[in-house]
Design brief:
240 residues, mainly alpha, 14 helices
């Protein structure tokens, strides 16, 4: 559809998005969301329609599509539009909260960041994970609230969320994150996200721990070759 982004297709999708039939409405919303390459065809008009639809009560399936549609077109959201989005942060539907995280990610607005911080404490790990990624990596903002939220997530029981927090702290060169990374390396059970944090810090003190893990990994047939390859690549970059 991106390659077939014509005015005719756009107009048809636009009309579908305004349909009274939810199935048709969702199709229209989804097509408009990614129709064409950046800048997408009719993007300002599409975003305006999305928020007009948000002003009326929509069922959760439509709302889910709207929020994800906005996530693909959220470069120039107004303060009013951001505030409208934050109204959905307490939705009882976890899928709505999940799609809201996508809609607000990369939006460098204090209200958007604050909402992502709140959602980084959601009871569902998938939401915590993406919200932590949103404030830790997709945002360049740095303040006490963000740092506190990231440090809190380093104690998360969900490994990927924990590692996203560590990456976010490494991105900000936060004091203490080195010790947190070494703790994970000593534990020996971590995902490749940790390599991102290590490569960001470029600290050669990590080399002995990585070498030890590589040695152990070679003896464990249950460890994926892809993970070992990423470990080697990280180690080589530190040694350069």
């Amino acid at each position: 559809m991106r390659k077939r982004a014509t005015k005719d297709i756009y107009d048809q999708a636009f009309e579908l998005a305004k349909s009274d039939i939810d199935k048709n409405k969702i199709i229209g919303i989804d097509v408009l969301a990614q129709l064409g390459f950046d800048p997408r065809i009719g993007q300002p008009k599409t975003v305006k329609l999305y928020f007009e639809l948000l002003e009326n009560k929509q069922n959760d399936d439509v709302l889910f599509s709207l929020l994800f549609g906005i996530s693909h077109n959220n470069e120039n959201l107004t303060e009013k539009q951001v505030l409208k989005l934050t109204e959905f942060k307490n939705s009882k539907n976890k899928d709505i909260r999940y799609s809201l995280v996508s809609a607000l990610s990369t939006v460098e607005n204090p209200k958007a960041i604050e909402t992502l911080i709140e959602l980084s404490e959601d009871k569902y790990s998938s939401i915590r994970n993406w919200a932590t990624f949103g404030i830790g990596t997709l945002s360049e903002k740095n303040n006490d609230r963000i740092l506190k939220a990231l440090w809190k997530r380093t104690k998360d029981k969900h490994q990927e969320t924990k590692l996203e927090a560590i990456v976010g702290l490494a991105n900000r060169n936060e004091i203490g994150v080195k010790a947190q990374i070494i703790k994970e390396l000593k534990n020996g059970e971590y995902g490749t996200l940790l390599f991102d944090a290590i490569e960001t810090l470029k600290d050669k003190d990590f080399i002995p721990y990585l070498e030890s893990n590589l040695k152990s990994a070679k003896k464990d047939s249950g460890i994926k070759e892809e993970w070992i390859s990423d470990l080697k690549q990280c180690l080589n970059k530190l040694k350069e």
